[in-house]
Task: inverse folding
DNA sequence: GCGACAG
DNA sequence: ATCTTGTCGC
């Protein structure tokens, strides 16, 4: 099974203690309908009405890079970078590589990225105070995006920081850094998240709650983590790291093939 | 039926 | 996400 990281699993009990075992017995979802069923099973376990964390000591950025073009057999590299929330200095990094276990389907994004991200998280020596995922949390067709999924499986506070919209409508945020607008579900008027301008004159980013976090606190932390660029340092560092990990893995594979070729 | 559609 | 050259701007 996928052992949760020393800190990630031990310090904070996962919200779904039997989940890992169940998945092991039943296998990772292989079809869209199975994935939808799994989402429905985990959805009620997400804590969406929390506040905080008020003063996280660390912020973690998570991201993945792919080798293929979206198929179920692509190689996937995941990375997690833990930063000091106050200085944004890197405290710890971890990566993991594996085959994609699911095709890319909008709304079922987590089934493609979660395995490798959990593997990377398991390598950390301590649980981060807040996980910032590349994608959405609540701002999802069934209110259970990647951030929610990762939050439920790890028990850690999580949130989504996406570069583009998946669902919801919103007014154009003001032009200044910090200006924001609600991301709303037209159907019922529910606030799904927040569209935040992190720098003057750049496209806004989409924030949404994942698990055990508040939107106001999240907004503060993301703004603090993005002192210079559009994307927070958590996302930028993780993006760089997983890409490097994928490239390194590709070079190793090429080298092995070349050796085999030479020996033949 | 016609778009929209995280990464 | 990934495939890709040059190009406009600080």
Result:
């Amino acid at each position: 099974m996928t052992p949760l990281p020393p800190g990630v699993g031990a310090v904070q009990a996962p919200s779904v203690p039997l989940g890992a075992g169940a998945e092991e017995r039943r296998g990772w979802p292989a079809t869209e309908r199975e994935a939808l069923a799994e989402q429905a099973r985990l959805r009620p376990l997400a804590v969406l009405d929390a506040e905080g964390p008020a003063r996280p000591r660390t912020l973690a950025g998570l991201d993945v890079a792919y080798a293929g073009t979206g198929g179920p057999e692509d190689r996937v590299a995941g990375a997690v970078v833990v930063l000091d929330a106050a200085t944004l200095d890197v405290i710890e990094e971890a990566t993991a590589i594996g085959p994609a276990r699911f095709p890319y389907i909008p709304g079922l994004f987590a089934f493609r990225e979660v395995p490798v991200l959990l593997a990377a998280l398991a390598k950390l020596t301590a649980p981060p105070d807040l996980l910032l995922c590349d994608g959405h949390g609540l701002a999802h067709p069934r209110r259970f995006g990647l951030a929610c999924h990762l939050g439920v499986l790890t028990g850690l506070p999580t949130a989504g920081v996406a570069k583009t919209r998946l669902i919801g409508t919103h007014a154009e945020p003001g032009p200044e850094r910090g200006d924001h607008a609600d991301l709303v579900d037209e159907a019922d008027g529910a606030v799904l998240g927040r569209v935040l301008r992190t720098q003057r004159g750049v496209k806004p980013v989409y924030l949404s709650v994942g698990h055990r976090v508040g939107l106001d606190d999240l907004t503060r932390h993301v703004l603090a983590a993005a002192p210079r660029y559009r994307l927070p340092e958590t996302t930028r560092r993780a993006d760089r790291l997983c890409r490097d990990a994928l490239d390194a893995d590709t070079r190793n594979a090429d080298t092995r093939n070349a050796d085999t070729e030479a020996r033949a």
Notes: Chain A has one domain: 45-258. The beta strands of chain A are 58-66, 75-84, 90-99, 131-133, 158-162, 180-184, 191-196, 205-211. Confidence is low (pLDDT under 50) at residues 9-22 of chain A. The radius of gyration of chain A is 18 Å.
